[in-house]
Specification:
About 70% of the residues lie in helices and about 0% in strands. The chain is an all-alpha fold. The chain has a single domain, classed as Four Helix Bundle (Hemerythrin (Met), subunit A). Pfam families: Cytochrom_C_2. Keywords: Electron transport, Heme, Iron, Metal-binding, Signal, Transport. This is Cytochrome c556. It comes from Labrys wisconsinensis.
Amino acid sequence: MRRFAAAAVLVAFGATVAFAGPIEDRQAIMKGVAAATKTATGIAKGETPFDAAKAKEIAAVYENAAAKMPTLFPDDSKTGNDTTAAPKIWEDKAGFAAEFAKLGTDAKALAATTDTASFAAAFKTLTGECGTCHGTYRIKKG
C-alpha cells in the first residue's frame, strides 16, 4: 500500500521513474492510470465518498498520462516487452496525439468536479475517451 501511495504522489506531481525504455515507461504510466481508474470507479458509483482533493489527485494521473504518453512511441518501440501498442499509432501519430489531448481536457474537467454526480458524469466522459483510444490504438490480448 505504501508503494502505491508513493507512486501515486510521484505521478500526481508529474514525476516519473526512468525505466529501461519507452515501452516500460508507458506501461508504468498505464498501470498508474489503471489504479486511478479503480479508485475513481468507486467514487463514481457512490461506493467511496466524494472528496475534491482525491478527485484532483486522480485527475492529475490522467493529465500526466495525457502529457507524456504521446512522446513514448518512438519508431524503435513498436514491438517487445509485451507491448499492446497497435501499428495504427505510427500510421496516425496526429490522431493518436489528438486522443491524448482530449484525455487531458477531460482530466481537467474531472479535477473541477464538486460532488459525486459531477464526478460521475466527468468520469464517464473521460473513460469513454479511454475506450475510444484503446479501441483504435491498442491490440487486444487474449
